[in-house]
C-alpha cells in the first residue's frame, strides 16, 4: 500500500510550529508495511487544499490528513474533502454527545460553532478523540482510504495508534523493518566509500547513510511478510558491513552513547567526576538522563573561569598563564584535578572555545581539548568542531562521552 500524509495549517508554513505529526505517522505506517512516498504541508486555504488532495487522491491508496478539524471558519479539512468526494456532511450524534460531554465535564456550555465538529462525511466512521473535541474521520471510498485527524499531536497520536493503524494493518500485507547501525570516528564519505558496492547493488534490504553531530548512521531496511523474515534478510547485509567498518560501530537503533557509558561505568563499578568549561554541564546532563548513574557519577563541576579552575581543580596558575585555558596542558590538569579532589576512579574534562567570538588564528572557534584521567593513565584529544555555539557544545559533549567509552572498553 502506498500512502501519503497531508499536514494542514498555515502555522506550519510560517514556521511557527514543527510538523511532528508527519514523522509520527510515517514511523507507525512503516511498522505495518505501508510505504509513505510523499509529505505535503498546505495552509488553511480551500483551493490549495483541494489541489493538494487531488494530487494525493490520484497517486496514493491511503491519504492521511492532520489539522483543520477545529470549530472555526478557517478549519476547512472535512468540508474540502467532502466537497471533492461529493459527499454531504451529516451529523454524527455520538460525536456530538462526546463533544457536549467534553464541555460539561469542565463546567462550560458548548459553543455553537463546535457543532460543526460533529458533522462527518456521509458513510465515514468517527474516530473518538479522548483528548479534545475534534473527532477523526475514517473513510473508504472508491478503493482508497482517507483518514482525517486533529492537528495537536497529543490528540492525534493516541487516535492514530488505537484506531487508524489497526484498521490499515488489516488492509496491508507485510512489514517494513529497519536496523540502525551507529558509527563514530569515521566520516560519512569514508564509510560510504568502504561499502559503496553494497549500496549500489541494494534492492531489498536497502542501505541509507546519514551523518549527524559527528557520528554516522546506516539504516538497513527490509520489506517482508514478517519481522522475523525482515530480520533474516537484514542479518547478512549487516554482517558484510561490520566486517568492513565494525571497528567504528558503537551502538544500534535508538541506543545513545551516554547509555552505553553509564552501563560500562556501572558494570565496571567505576566512579567518575567531571570538569566542564565550554560545554557548561552538558556532558553531566546527558549522563544524568540515565537512571541509576548516581552510583557512578560523584560530582560535576562547571569551571568556567580561570579562578574556578585554580581553586576547584588545582590547575596551576603558571599552566594557565603559559598555555591558556584552552590547551592540552590545562585539560589534563583539569581531568586529573577533578579526579584527585573527588577521590574518584576516573576524571573527565572539557575546555574549548564555543564561539561565536573569542577565537584567534592560533586558537579558532571550535577548538576543544578533552582529557581523561585514571590512576595509571592520562589521555587528551584535540578537536576542531564546526557549527554554531550550540552545535559545537553538542559535538564536544558527544566526543567526551566517546573518549570515556573507548577508555572504559580498554
Automatic annotation (TrEMBL):
Spans through the membrane: none
Q: Which SUPFAM superfamilies match?
A: CinA-like, Molybdenum cofactor biosynthesis proteins
Domain MoaB/Mog spans what residues? 4-170
UniProt-listed InterPro entries:
CinA, CinA-like_C, CinA_C, CinA_KH, Competence-induced_CinA, MoaB/Mog-like_dom_sf, MoaB/Mog_dom
- Report what the protein is called: Putative competence-damage inducible protein
Q: Which SMART domains match?
A: MoCF_biosynth
Family per record: Belongs to the CinA family.
Q: Which Pfam families match?
A: CinA, CinA_KH, MoCF_biosynth
Q: Which HAMAP family match?
A: CinA_B (MF_00226_B)
Amino acid at each position: 500500500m502506498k500512502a501519503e500524509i497531508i499536514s494542514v495549517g498555515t502555522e506550519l508554513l510560517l514556521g511557527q510550529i514543527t510538523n511532528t505529526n508527519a514523522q509520527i505517522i510515517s514511523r507507525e505506517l512503516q511498522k505495518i508495511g505501508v510505504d509513505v512516498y510523499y509529505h505535503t504541508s498546505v495552509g488553511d486555504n480551500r483551493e490549495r487544499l483541494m489541489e493538494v488532495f487531488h494530487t494525493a487522491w490520484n497517486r496514493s491508496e491511503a491519504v492521511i490528513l492532520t489539522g483543520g478539524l477545529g470549530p472555526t471558519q478557517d478549519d476547512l479539512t472535512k468540508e474540502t474533502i467532502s466537497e471533492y468526494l461529493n459527499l454531504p456532511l451529516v451529523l454524527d450524534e455520538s460525536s456530538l454527545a462526546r463533544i457536549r460531554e467534553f464541555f460539561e465535564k469542565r463546567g462550560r456550555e458548548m459553543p455553537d460553532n463546535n457543532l460543526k465538529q460533529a458533522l462527518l462525511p456521509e458513510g465515514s466512521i468517527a474516530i473518538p478523540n479522548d483528548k479534545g473535541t475534534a473527532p477523526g474521520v475514517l473513510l473508504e471510498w472508491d478503493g482508497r482510504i482517507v483518514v482525517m485527524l486533529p492537528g495537536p499531536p497529543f490528540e492525534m497520536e493516541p487516535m492514530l495508534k488505537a484506531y487508524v493503524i489497526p484498521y490499515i494493518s488489516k488492509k496491508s500485507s507485510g512489514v517494513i523493518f529497519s536496523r540502525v547501525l551507529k558509527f563514530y570516528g569515521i566520516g560519512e564519505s569514508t564509510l560510504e566509500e568502504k561499502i559503496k558496492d553494497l549500496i549500489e547493488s541494494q534492492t531489498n534490504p536497502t542501505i541509507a547513510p546519514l551523518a549527524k553531530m559527528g557520528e554516522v548512521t546506516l539504516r538497513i531496511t527490509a520489506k517482508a511478510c514478517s519481522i522475523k523474515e525482515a530480520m533474516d534478510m537484514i542479518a547478512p547485509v549487516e554482517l558484510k558491513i561490520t566486517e568492513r567498518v565494525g571497528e567504528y560501530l558503537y551502538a544500534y537503533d535508538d541506543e545513545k552513547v551516554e547509555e552505553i557509558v553509564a552501563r560500562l561505568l556501572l558494570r565496571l563499578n567505576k566512579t567518575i567526576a567531571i570538569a566542564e568549561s565550554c560545554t557548561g554541564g552538558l556532558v553531566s546532563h546527558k549522563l544524568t538522563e540515565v537512571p541509576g548513574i548516581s552510583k557512578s557519577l560523584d560530582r560535576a563541576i562547571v569551571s568556567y573561569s580561570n579562578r574556578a579552575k585554580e581553586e576547584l581543580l588545582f590547575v596551576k596558575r603558571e599552566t594557565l598563564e603559559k598555555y591558556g585555558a584552552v590547551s592540552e596542558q590545562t585539560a589534563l590538569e583539569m581531568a586529573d584535578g577533578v579526579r584527585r579532589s573527588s577521590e574518584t576512579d576516573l576524571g573527565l574534562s572539557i575546555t574549548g572555545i564555543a564561539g561565536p567570538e573569542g577565537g584567534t588564528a592560533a586558537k579558532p572557534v571550535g577548538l576543544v581539548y578533552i582529557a581523561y584521567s585514571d590512576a595509571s593513565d592520562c589521555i587528551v584529544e584535540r578537536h576542531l568542531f564546526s557549527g554554531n555555539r550550540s552545535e559545537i557544545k553538542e559535538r564536544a559533549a558527544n566526543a567526551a562521552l566517546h573518549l570515556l567509552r573507548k577508555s572504559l572498553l580498554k
